[in-house]
Design goal:
about 20% strand; 10 helices; about 650 residues; five-stranded parallel β-sheet; alpha+beta; twelve-stranded mixed β-sheet
Length: about 650
C-alpha cells in the first residue's frame, strides 16, 4: 500500500532497488545530490543532473521533461553517502514558467522497479520558488528511509545547491541549464496536452482569397518557374508563369474552433479477445475527433510504449549487472572462497542468477516488442499521406488536400533493442521550429560515406522533406523558396524546379541571397506588426500571408555579416508568422563565427541525411536512431506528387 506523505513525514524503504517518479505537468529538471553524514555535498561530482546523469547507485533523466523516472540502487551507493536529495527545478532561458506558484503541484512517488507504490508526496504550498528539494532518502541505523521535504528556493537551482554546502553552486547551475537547453534542442517535442474539453489545439492559417490569373504579381518577384538569366537552374520545358495569389482578410493562425463534446470512443472492430490475452491491434483505436487524430495519437502511444519498455529492460539489466558485480566481489573478498569448490559454486550461483534475471527481462521486452510490431503492421498501411512512407500505396491515389493535416512524417525512429520496429517520426504542423539538415560528419556516421557524398545526400533529403510539406498543405497555404549561393545544389533541386512548385527560381550569388533575405525579413516585420496591432486590413494588397519555407543550402558560403544577422532574425521571429528555415549546412563550416550562431543551431531541429542516433524522446531521453525518409529507387512517386501540387496551384490561381 502506498503511503501518503505530508511535509516532514518519513517512511521506511522496504527495498534497495527503487524508482522515484515525478509528474510536474510542465518540463522540469530532475536531479539528485549525494551528501555525507553532515548533510554536505563535497563537490560537483556528487551531483547527478542532465549533464552528468549517472552516479554509482543512481541515474536521472538527461533532459527537462514533464515526467521523470529516477533510478536508485541504494546498496550500490558509496559508503560515505548518508543522504540523497531529489531536486526539481524550472529550466531558465527556454520560455517556460519562472516559478512553481502558477503551476499544478508537482508529485513525487517512490515505487519498486515493478511499479508497486511505496510512498507518494504532493509538493504543495510553492509560490515564487523555481527550485525545490522534493524528497530525501537517508540512512538511519543501517536502514534507508524517505522523507517528504518540499523545501523551495526562490533563488533557483544555484541557491538550492549553495544551501547544501556546494562551493561551486553558481557555475554548476549554469552548466546544468546549458545541458538542458542542448537536450531540448535534440528532443522531439511531445504532442500538445489535451485541453479540458478533450480537444487538441490545431493551428492552421486562414485560407487566402483566390486571385484571378490577371491579378498583379508583386514587382520584387519573378514569375514562378521562370529562371533568372545565367542561373544554373535553366531547364527546358519549364511550366508557364503563374502569378502569386494576393491575400486579403484578417490574419489568423488558430483553428476557428470545434465542438466541445468529448470525442467518441472508436468501436471495437476486431474479433473477440480471449480473457487474459492481449487485444488484437486495430488501426485508429486511440481517442480523437477523426481517424487522422486517432492514428496520430496511436503512433505517439506506440512511441511512448517503446521508450518505456526499453527503459524498463535497461534498468533490469543494469540491476542484474550491478548485483552480479557485488556478489562476485563478496565471494572474492572471503579468503575461504579463493580455493576449493566453494568459491566456484558461489560465482556460478551469482552468474546463474544474473542470467535468469536478464532472461526474464528480455522475455518481457520481447513480449512488448511483439505486441508493438503487430500494432505497427496494422497501423502503417492505414496511415494517410501526411503520415505515410513514400513506398506506401496511399500515394498512388494522392490528391492535393484542402485542409492542413495535424502532422507530417519526417522519418523513422528505432532503438538498438528494436532494430526491426520503426516508429514514424510525426511532427506537428505548422512547424514550431525550423529544420537543420546536417551535412557534416558525426561519430556515428558510416566512415565509407565521404564528405561530398554527405553534402549531396543532405540536399536530397532537404528536397524530400520540402516535397512532403508541399504535398500535405493546401495549394494556397504553403510555399517554398531556395537560397543556393553557388548553385551547387542544382542537381538535387531539379525535381522542385522542373515541377514549378517553387515561388521563384533558387537565389544565386551574394545579391540573390541579400534580396531574398531582405524581402522575407520585411514580410515577417509586416505580419508581426499587423498581428500585434490588430491591423490586418492595413497590409499591402499583394502581400502573401501563406506559410513559407526557406531552404538555405551550403551555409555560410555566400553570406556576409548582414545576411547572417537577417538569417538569425528569421529563425527567431519567423515561426510566429509561419516563416520557417531549413538549413542544409555543416556546423564546422560556420565555426569562424564562434558562439554567435549557437542560438541558431539550438533553435532548429537537427536531422541527418544518413541514420544517426542523435534524437531523444520526451519521456525517458533515450538516444534514438533517426532514419531519414527515402524515395524507393526508380520510383516516380516524388515527381508525380510534385506535378499534382503544381497543377493544383495553377488551377487555384486561375
Amino acid at each position: 500500500m502506498t503511503a501518503e506523505l505530508v511535509r516532514g513525514q518519513n517512511h521506511p524503504l522496504p527495498r534497495a532497488r527503487l524508482e522515484v517518479r515525478v509528474s510536474a505537468g510542465t518540463p522540469v529538471v530532475a536531479g539528485a545530490t549525494l551528501a555525507d553524514a553532515r548533510g554536505r555535498v563535497p563537490g560537483v561530482e556528487w551531483v547527478a543532473h542532465p549533464g552528468a546523469p549517472a552516479l554509482p547507485g543512481l541515474e536521472v533523466s538527461r533532459q527537462a521533461a514533464a515526467d521523470h523516472r529516477l533510478a536508485f540502487d541504494l546498496d550500490a551507493l558509496p559508503e560515505s553517502v548518508h543522504r540523497v536529495s531529489v531536486l526539481l527545478a524550472l529550466p531558465t532561458g527556454t520560455g517556460g514558467p519562472a516559478r512553481f506558484g502558477g503551476l499544478a503541484a508537482p508529485v513525487a512517488t517512490v515505487t519498486g522497479i515493478d511499479g508497486s507504490g511505496v510512498a507518494h508526496y504532493t509538493i504543495s504550498g510553492l509560490d515564487s520558488e523555481s527550485a525545490v528539494i522534493a524528497l530525501e532518502l537517508y540512512r538511519r541505523q543501517g536502514a534507508w528511509k524517505v522523507r517528504a521535504v518540499g523545501q523551495g528556493y526562490a533563488g533557483g537551482l544555484a541557491a538550492l545547491l549553495a544551501d547544501q554546502g556546494l562551493s561551486e553552486a553558481e557555475p554548476l547551475a549554469g552548466r546544468i541549464n546549458d545541458a538542458v537547453v542542448q537536450g531540448l534542442a535534440r528532443s522531439i517535442a511531445p504532442p500538445p496536452p489535451r485541453s479540458p474539453d478533450g480537444d487538441r489545439t490545431r493551428q492552421t492559417a486562414t485560407p487566402a482569397a483566390p486571385q484571378g490569373a490577371s491579378g498583379p504579381v508583386p514587382p520584387h518577384q519573378d514569375s514562378p518557374g521562370v529562371p533568372r538569366e545565367g542561373s544554373p537552374y535553366d531547364v527546358a520545358g519549364s511550366p508557364d508563369p503563374v502569378p502569386q495569389p494576393a491575400s486579403g482578410g484578417p490574419i489568423s493562425h488558430v483553428h476557428p474552433g470545434r465542438s466541445s463534446a468529448a470525442p467518441p470512443t472508436p468501436p471495437p472492430t476486431g474479433p473477440a479477445t480471449p480473457p487474459g490475452q492481449p487485444g488484437q491491434p486495430v488501426a485508429g483505436d486511440a481517442t480523437g475527433w477523426s481517424m487522422e487524430e486517432r492514428l496520430y495519437n496511436q503512433v505517439w502511444g506506440m512511441f511512448e510504449d517503446l521508450a518505456r519498455t526499453a527503459a524498463a529492460y535497461r534498468s533490469a539489466v543494469d540491476f542484474a549487472d550491478s548485483r552480479l558485480e557485488r556478489e562476485l566481489d563478496k565471494a572474492l573478498a572471503d579468503p575461504r572462497n579463493r580455493i576449493g569448490g566453494q568459491g566456484d559454486a558461489a560465482r556460478e550461483a551469482a552468474r546463474s542468477k544474473h542470467t535468469r534475471l536478464v532472461t526474464q527481462a528480455r522475455a518481457s521486452l520481447d513480449r512488448d516488442l511483439s505486441q508493438l510490431s503487430a500494432e505497427s503492421d496494422v497501423v502503417e498501411p492505414a496511415l494517410p499521406p501526411a503520415f505515410a512512407r513514400w513506398d506506401n500505396p496511399v500515394w498512388h491515389g494522392y490528391r492535393v488536400p484542402m485542409e492542413i493535416p495535424m502532422a507530417a512524417r519526417l522519418g523513422d525512429l528505432h532503438l538498438p533493442e528494436s532494430e526491426t520496429l520503426r516508429i514514424p517520426m510525426l511532427v506537428r504542423l505548422p512547424l514550431e521550429r525550423g529544420l537543420w539538415i546536417d551535412s557534416g560528419r558525426s561519430g556515428s556516421f558510416d566512415p565509407l560515406v565521404d564528405s561530398d557524398e554527405l553534402r549531396r545526400l543532405a540536399m536530397e533529403t532537404a528536397v524530400v522533406h520540402a516535397a512532403r510539406l508541399l504535398a500535405v498543405y493546401p495549394p494556397d497555404e504553403f510555399a517554398v523558396q531556395v537560397i543556393d549561393p553557388a548553385g551547387s545544389g542544382a542537381p538535387a533541386l531539379a525535381p522542385l524546379v522542373r515541377s514549378g512548385v517553387l515561388v521563384e527560381p533558387p537565389a544565386v550569388g551574394g545579391a540573390g541571397v541579400a534580396d531574398v533575405l531582405t524581402r522575407l525579413t520585411q514580410r515577417v516585420d509586416l505580419l508581426q506588426m499587423a498581428a500585434r496591432g490588430g491591423a490586418s486590413d492595413a497590409l499591402p494588397p499583394g502581400l502573401d500571408t501563406a506559410g513559407r519555407l526557406l531552404i538555405v543550402h551550403d551555409f555560410p558560403h555566400g553570406f556576409d555579416d548582414r545576411a547572417v544577422t537577417r538569417l538569425r532574425y528569421l529563425a527567431d521571429e519567423g515561426p510566429s508568422v509561419g516563416v520557417q528555415l531549413m538549413m542544409v549546412a555543416d556546423r564546422e563550416d560556420a565555426a569562424g563565427y564562434g558562439p554567435l550562431l549557437d542560438p541558431l543551431w539550438r533553435s532548429l531541429l537537427r536531422l541527418t541525411p544518413v541514420p544517426d542516433d542523435h534524437l531523444a524522446d520526451p519521456w525517458v531521453g533515450h538516444a534514438w536512431t533517426y532514419e531519414p525518409p527515402r524515395v524507393p529507387r526508380g520510383s516516380q512517386v516524388l515527381a508525380q506528387v510534385l506535378s499534382r501540387v503544381a497543377e493544383a496551384r495553377r488551377a487555384w490561381n486561375r
